[in-house]
Structure formats: structure tokens, C-alpha cells
Specification:
The structure is a single chain. The protein is α/β, with parallel strands linked by helices. It has 10 helices and 9 strands. α3 links the parallel β3 and β4. The protein starts with a strand and ends with a strand. The relative contact order is 0.13. The protein binds adenosine monophosphate (AMP).
């Protein structure tokens, strides 16, 4: 695995590979790698001859008071995991490499960045879009792979590619979970042992909501009951049941549904979602 810190060196290396006819698949991460990240790498391997993974904790997607300074750094373990997956290139840029002209962004996400997580983290998705756009300019991948766990982010990146007319094929992978159902997340490391035992109730409440909707409960009752259930253990930031295709309110004809939620639990913020189909009602 080649490791690059300078974008110039990476660009030269990738240009040579492209000239030889190789496709490039790109997986951006913030490190603290787990099997969720590795599932994206596996997908990238299927898609292209060359797989590039980045590890960069992007300052512009964290607001003041969030966990930028404490974000888990497990670099040596991450490197071994990526080597074991035969990743071709690991890109480890500094903040100056990514933002040589300062961190002011020239891309605004718009309305989709202000709902759900964006209502609680108003500058977050502008920062995400900014860094992904920058990485796309540097890596120029044919494919990029993202996780459905960050579903709103995935939708925002798809619209970025469309808005900027980029020829990058965006692929996604389902959420990888621990055996007890908790969605894998770098931030799970923040949970105390006792909170870690309770955390799977988050996903089980989303599963219950799905079953209740499929059994005929109204969406508004399902939302109300699930929020009540979650509130017994967690502080619910939001819980919504939306059209999975565009994150808008469900209409009678909507068949692909997402239950999407964020909670706070002992100082840790967790997000999760569940996507399912219902027959036309
Ligand atoms: P992060 O390092 O948290 O910025 O995540 C990097 C990529 O990994 C994003 O595309 C995430 O959606 C994806 N990811 C994070 N957790 C999971 C998971 N449990 N399953 C699948 N993909 C994930």
C-alpha cells in the first residue's frame, strides 16, 4: 500500500495508473476504521482496479464544541486493516494540503442540508460537501463509495455530483452492525460499558416502528410511540419517517420508506436509519 501525504505526489501517481487504463474507486473516511468502512473498501475493490482510501478528520464539518479535538485516532490499526484489504493507496493529507487557500467553501448544500442532522448541526453538511468536492478534484475517481448509515450525507453527495455535473459514479453500502444490532460507528468508542449495553435499544426501536407501520399503524402514531419509547433511555434529537428517495414527507404512493433518527446518549451522538418497502396503500 502506497501512502501519500502530498496531493501533488498522489495526483502524479494516479495519472500514471489512469494512463495505463485503470479505473479508480475512492473511499473517504475520518479513520477509526471498523467493518463498516471495510465493507466500502470491499465494494471499491469490486468496482475498480485501483482503490484509494483517505483518512482526514475534516475540521470544517465540526462545529465549535463538537468532538473534533477528541475524534478517535487509531492510525496504526487502520493502516494494518487497509493493508489486509490490499488497498492500493492511502491518502493522508494535512489540513493545509486540503485547504491551501483557507477553509471558506464555494459550495452550499442548500435546503437538504438544513433538515434532520442539519437542523442540529447547521454547518455540518456544507463542510462535508466542501471536503468531498475537494477530494473529488484531487483523486478524480471513477467511483466513490459511501455508507447508508449516513443517509442524508449520501443524498447530499449524490446531489453534489449531479449539480456539478461530475462523472463520478456514487455507490453505497448498507449499514454494518454489531451482533446486537448497534450500527458500527467510530463514535461507539465513546460509550461507557453500561451505555454500550443499552445502545442497541436504538435500532430495535426503529425495527419495531417498521413492523408497526407494516402492520397498519399510522406514520404519525409510529413516530409518536417510537419517540416515547426512545425517550425512556435516550435524548431524541429527531425521529422521522420519510420517503427514502428524497427525504421528503411520505405520500400515499410512497413505497420506499426510511425511518431516520439521531439520539444523544451520555454525551455521545448516535445516528441510525432503516429503509424498507411497503406495498402501495
Ligand atoms: P466516517 O469515517 O465516519 O466519516 O465514515 C466514512 C464512510 O464510512 C462514510 O461513507 C460512512 O457512511 C461509512 N460508514 C460509517 N459507518 C458505517 C457502517 N456502520 N456501515 C457502513 N458504512 C459506514
Amino acid at each position: 500500500m502506497k501512502i501519500f501525504e502530498k496531493k501533488k505526489d498522489l495526483e502524479l501517481f494516479l495519472d500514471t495508473l489512469r494512463e495505463k487504463g485503470n479505473d479508480i474507486a475512492f473511499v473517504p473516511t475520518m479513520g477509526g476504521l471498523h467493518d463498516g468502512h471495510l465493507s466500502l473498501v470491499d465494494k471499491a475493490k469490486e468496482l475498480a482496479q485501483i482503490v484509494v482510501v483517505s483518512i482526514f478528520v475534516n475540521p470544517t464539518q465540526f462545529a465549535r464544541g463538537e468532538d473534533f479535538d477528541d475524534y478517535p485516532n487509531t492510525f496504526e490499526a487502520d493502516k494494518l486493516l487497509l493493508e489486509s484489504k490490499n488497498v492500493d493507496v492511502l491518502f493522508l493529507p494535512s489540513k493545509e494540503e486540503i485547504y491551501p487557500h483557507g477553509t471558506k467553501s464555494d459550495y452550499q448544500v442548500g435546503a437538504i442540508g438544513q433538515i434532520l442532522c442539519g437542523a442540529f448541526r447547521p454547518t455540518h453538511f456544507d463542510g462535508v460537501a466542501q471536503v468531498v468536492k475537494r477530494f473529488f478534484e484531487i483523486v478524480e475517481p471513477n467511483f466513490a463509495v459511501f455508507g447508508e448509515k449516513d443517509y442524508q450525507q449520501l443524498q447530499i453527495i449524490k446531489s453534489l455530483v449531479k449539480n456539478l455535473n461530475l462523472s463520478i459514479n456514487i455507490q453505497s453500502m448498507p449499514t454494518q452492525r454489531e451482533q446486537d444490532g448497534l450500527a458500527m460507528s467510530t463514535r461507539n468508542q465513546y460509550l461507557s460499558d453500561s451505555n454500550r449495553e443499552i445502545a442497541p435499544l436504538f435500532y430495535s426501536a426503529l425495527k419495531d416502528a417498521k413492523n408497526e407501520i407494516l402492520e397498519g399503524k399510522t406514520i404519525s402514531d409510529a413516530i409518536k410511540d417510537t419517540k416515547n419509547k426512545l425517550s425512556k433511555s435516550f435524548e431524541v434529537e429527531y425521529l422521522e419517517v420519510l420517503d427514502a428517495n428524497n427525504l421528503t414527507q411520505i405520500e400515499t404512493k410512497t413505497s420506499e420508506i426510511i425511518i431516520i433518527s439521531a439520539i444523544r446518549f451520555g454525551g455521545t451522538r448516535l445516528i441510525d436509519n432503516l429503509i424498507f418497502r411497503r406495498k402501495n396503500v
